[in-house]
């Protein structure tokens, strides 16, 4: 049995009500760890509902005062409890007092890393105690020149999604994500029109992007192209399960894209641009398609019938189910704990 300490950022509870990919990953890991008998402590938003022992943050934002309060809570507790390993999904600064200590620590990046912080932390940390993970090779390759980095993909619990072996002949395409330019909602509309497919758009409109929605999305809404707003987990399962394909027409380098594997958990193939980690998640012609241009994606949509939804689901189970991802992290924990102990012994 391991004593595992996990830190989250303070803004959202674990798990989140609607959106919050990192918080969902944390909740998924805790569920698997506690079922296996490990002792888990979680530092997170006071509204978190968790099987772990919760240490609620006194600060709920990103102000200097909040950060000092939260860091104090974390480090006071960790110095007293001495976990076997500390796994941070939060601000790296929260762990600053822990860096010179001989407890192994993992900093997991679900977004683009700030390399200057990585280098500074690794320089301060006691040798063989600080390690990094990226949610894709795309992320971990950015860290690897400066510090030890491992790739462990994201996952989701298969119990939250219902596999659909087939869909209706007129099943729609689906776009699910934040309604903003980098997510490519406008490209999804273009793809639907060029393939004469129905399209269902779901997701929140972030602050500052209402004009994008009003000018680029709203004018195209019709009986065939609909916008249904933000969706919860139950609605997401239904939406993705009834889709002919999930569209990922991103305009940026997506670090992972959890929604892709949520679609795959329903057996729904994914079609997206080859940016960021998309080509790591999708295997061309097996569980979806990726390409570089709108014309290529149009051709991919027209080949959806050649994708086996059963194969898509099987690939998800093998690579991205919660049990697989939790096991991968636990294996890494044990490797790093042993490495740290060996390093201490040799000294």
Explained architecture:
The chain has twelve helices and 13 strands. With 347 residues, the protein is of the alpha/beta class. The two termini are 26 Å apart. The radius of gyration is 21 Å and the shape is elongated. It has two domains: 3-155 and 321-346, 3-Layer(aba) Sandwich (Rossmann fold); 158-319, Glycogen Phosphorylase B (Rossmann fold), CATH 3.40.50.2000.
User: What is the H-and-E element order?
Assistant: EHEEHEEHEHEEHEHEHEHEHEHHH
The Cα radius of gyration reads 21 Å
Order of the strands making up the biggest sheet:
3-2-1-4-5-6-7
Strands, count: 13
> What is the C-level CATH assignment of the largest domain?
Alpha Beta
CATH architecture of the largest domain: 3-Layer(aba) Sandwich
Major sheet characteristics: 7 strands, parallel
Structural class: alpha/beta
| Tally of separate helices | 12
Give the percentage of residues in beta strands: 15-25%
Distance between the termini: 26 Å
Q: Which word captures the global form?
A: elongated
Low-confidence spans: pLDDT under 50, at least 5 residues? none
| Helix-residue proportion | 25-40%
CATH homologous superfamily classification of the largest domain: Glycogen Phosphorylase B
How many structural domains does the protein architecture include? 2
Whole-number average pLDDT? 94
């Amino acid at each position: 049995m391991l004593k595992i300490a996990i830190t989250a950022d303070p803004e959202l509870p674990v798990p989140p009500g609607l959106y919050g990919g990192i918080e969902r990953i944390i909740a998924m890991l805790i569920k698997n760890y506690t079922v296996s008998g490990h002792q888990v402590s979680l530092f997170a938003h006071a509204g978190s509902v968790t099987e772990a022992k919760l240490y609620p943050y006194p600060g709920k934002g990103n102000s200097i005062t909040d950060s000092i309060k939260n860091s104090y809570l974390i480090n006071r507790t960790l110095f007293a409890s001495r976990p076997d390993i500390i796994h941070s999904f939060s601000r790296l600064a929260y762990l600053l007092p822990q860096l010179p200590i001989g407890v192994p620590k993992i900093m997991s990046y679900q977004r683009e890393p700030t390399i200057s912080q990585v280098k500074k932390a690794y320089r301060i940390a006691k040798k063989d105690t600080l390690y990094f993970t990226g949610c894709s090779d795309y992320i971990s390759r950015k860290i690897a020149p400066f510090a030890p980095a491992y790739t462990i993909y994201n996952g989701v619990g298969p119990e939250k999604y219902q596999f659909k072996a087939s869909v209706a002949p007129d099943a729609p395409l689906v776009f699910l994500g934040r309604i903003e330019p980098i997510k490519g909602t406008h490209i999804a509309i273009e793809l639907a029109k060029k393939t004469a497919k129905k399209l269902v758009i779901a997701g929140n409109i972030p602050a500052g992007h209402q004009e994008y929605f009003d000018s680029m999305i709203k004018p195209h809404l019709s009986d065939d192209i609909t916008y249904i707003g933000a969706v919860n987990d139950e609605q997401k399962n239904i939406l993705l399960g009834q889709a002919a394909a999930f569209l990922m027409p991103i305009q940026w380098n997506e670090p992972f894209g959890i929604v892709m594997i949520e679609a795959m958990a329903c057996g729904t193939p994914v079609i997206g641009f080859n940016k960021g980690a998309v080509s790591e998640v999708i295997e061309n012609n097996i569980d979806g398609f990726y390409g570089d241009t709108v014309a290529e994606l149009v051709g991919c949509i027209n080949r959806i019938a050649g994708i086996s939804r059963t194969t898509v689901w099987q690939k998800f189970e093998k690579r991205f189910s919660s049990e697989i991802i939790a096991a991968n992290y636990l294996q890494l924990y044990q490797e790093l704990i042993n490495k740290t102990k060996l390093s201490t012994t040799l000294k």
